[in-house]
């Protein structure tokens, strides 16, 4: 089992987090971990993202990674902040080789057969199917999974608490990425923990 597969199998849902305020980092991470979701993807979509990663790393049991990693510069900054895994919206040879050289688990985004074949050529067989709903939904994923029987996926993008079980029932799906667990603004810790508890039971 590769390191990225071990991470993917830790929880059925990986929260995809966009955190604007560093002060929200600890309460969000604590609530998610308390609810049973240990793997946290902090997207590099905000100016505070790297500091958020550093804060969330302090929560016992949390496995914190960086999402929206676009290039080697992003990857190195995320590693310096303490990221334990890297998620990207797409796949480039340079990013894959940099992750390999840095010995950090990488979950690159793919949306078609060509992406998967390029990933396989680079020694990768675990991918983020992104944007999952916009790229054709579960029907498209099943069609992609059929010729690539050893490949496994983490669909992300447009998936909800209601639709997640159908995705997770697909053999090729190890987990899903979800942004529904944490609302915008000041964190409602009780609501986040309840959402995490519900999500943790989906697998």
Would you write up a description of this structure?
The chain is α/β, with parallel strands linked by helices and 203 residues long. The chain contains nine helices and eight strands. The strands form two sheets. The protein has a four-stranded parallel β-sheet with strand order 3-2-1-8. A four-stranded parallel β-sheet has the order 4-5-6-7. α2 crosses α3 (49-56) and α2 packs parallel to α9. The mean pLDDT is 97.
Q: Which structural class is indicated by helix and strand composition?
A: alpha/beta
Cα end-to-end separation:
19 Å
Overall radius of gyration:
16 Å
Tally of contiguous helical segments: 9
Strand order of the largest sheet: 3-2-1-8
SSE arrangement, N to C: HEHEHEHEHEHEHEHEH
Percent of residues in β-strands: 15-25%
Q: Helical residue percent?
A: 25-40%
Assembly state of the chains shown: single chain
Record field, number of beta strands:
8
Unreliable residue runs? none
The geometry reads as globular
Largest sheet: 4 strands, parallel
What is the averaged pLDDT score? 97
